[in-house]
Amino acid sequence: MHLSRAAVLGGGPGGLYAARLLKLAYPSCEVTVYEQGTPDATFGFGVGLAAGTQRKLDAADPDTLRDLVAAGHRHDMTLRVGADTVRVRNDRLIGIARTELLAILHRHAEKAGAALEFGSRRTAAELDADLVIAADGVSSETRGNGPFGTRIDVGRGLYLWCGTDFALEDAVFAPVHTEHGTFVTHAYPYSGGRSTFLIETDERTWRNAGFDVSTAATPFDASDEVSLAYLGEIFAEQLRGRPLIGNRTRWLRFRTVRCARWSAGRTVLLGDAAHTAHFSIGSGTKLAMEDAIGLVAALREAPDLATAFARYEAARRPAVERLQELARRSQLWWESFPARLHLPVERLMVAYMTRSGNVPLDRFAATNPDVVAAALTHYAGEQPPPSPDAVTGWVLDRPLIHNGRHYPHRHPARVDANLVTLDEVLTDPWDETGDAVVARARRARADGADGFRFTGPGDRAAVLTRLDLAERVRTEVGGLSVVEAPAALREDLAAGLVSGRTDLASFTGES
């Protein structure tokens, strides 16, 4: 396919990277990036690049990746609850300043021959181009004005982005209890002297602290100084007494963007314009840059734009939707995070790592055996096996004493207790349907039920949601919880046991 002129709307990571790759693939094509901001008006702090993303960038454009890694700041991950701390190693995770990331991508786009126009607010309709790549972000005007079948889901929790003027040793997750409720930070270093400091909370805590008022009083282009001052005080230990730094910092609710189609005519969506995934997965930059790789590959192989767009979407949508589902589960976990703070910190780390179903328990045991060993010791009161391959079976085979009843292992064929079956099929255990299940469970307990058997479809998504529902009922109502699932999902059940999501497992079909 021949391309004479291509336009990119948006000078973020996805747009700049797409411009470079497109110019490398089509040297004679005139490629122009239109960015409404200016190079010195970049907002945000640091972004993360995990090992998998680095591998894909290396395959597509090793020169750019080399500069990104050189400018990045490698770190591990720490969870701190009160005086207790647990650390997880992550050898290839790096943070990089958003300003530095954009400067590198800007430089490489221009080096490839792309033109960049800053301070230029343009629309797809007014551009004289064979191809328009809309990489204009989560609030994309292109998407809003086009036939893309957009759906936007808004999260329950609230969060804000801020920063610090020093580099943390590791990424840190740390909750702080206050008179208003619980706030939790997701913080990580991204340079030798800076860290991102994201803080989130639930709506009740947010309102109790008066942040609904401070948010309403904060202009769009300013930072919520009232929130920053208060949060700087309660996170003083993590901040070493330093202040929080704002940059258009205000409380937000995460918006998950989904589109029924990613292209229309000569225009194609890329990155946050097409889809978003919750920040707790660290996926915005990853998805945008991988979209750029996929789009340019499709353009090179297809005979026309329509075919290229179809191939691009067919190749990228499964990966995007998978990550969006992982992010959705992670978002729900973080929005309900304070309910888990009774767990020993090592078990809480296992719960965190397995929250989306993306990290198998045995694999986590292989990469961080000391953390998992401590979690399993808390779980069973005895030393676990040395081999990671034996962890799942060992977890399921531990005995349990619950309200005077003794179970020789955690997957008994029969449970001698008065259990009420909860078989509701839902996607969000904390929505109104989940509330109704909890209310029903409370009534059942008041009527003498010993606990609950959670059953339903046998697909993995349903089982993971069932474990989350069991956790909520177990935490808020009490009683014995038994989660049913096919034997093929025994590792998910084992992770649920260690994470405190259920007391017992039951393999479907056993009697």
Automatic annotation (TrEMBL):
Stored SUPFAM superfamilies: FAD/NAD(P)-binding domain
Q: Give all residue intervals belonging to the FAD-binding domain.
A: 105-324
The reply on keyword Phosphoprotein is no
What protein does this entry describe?
Answer: 2-polyprenyl-6-methoxyphenol hydroxylase-like FAD-dependent oxidoreductase
InterPro entries reported for this sequence = FAD-bd, FAD/NAD-bd_sf, PheA/TfdB_FAD_monoxygenase
Instruction: Give the source species.
Output: Amycolatopsis thermophila
Q: Which PANTHER family match?
A: 3-(3-HYDROXY-PHENYL)PROPIONATE/3-HYDROXYCINNAMIC ACID HYDROXYLASE (PTHR43476), BLR0106 PROTEIN (PTHR43476:SF4)
Q: Record's superkingdom?
A: Bacteria
Tell me any Pfam family this protein matches: FAD_binding_3
Q: Where are the transmembrane segments?
A: none
Q: Which UniProt keywords apply?
A: NAD, Oxidoreductase
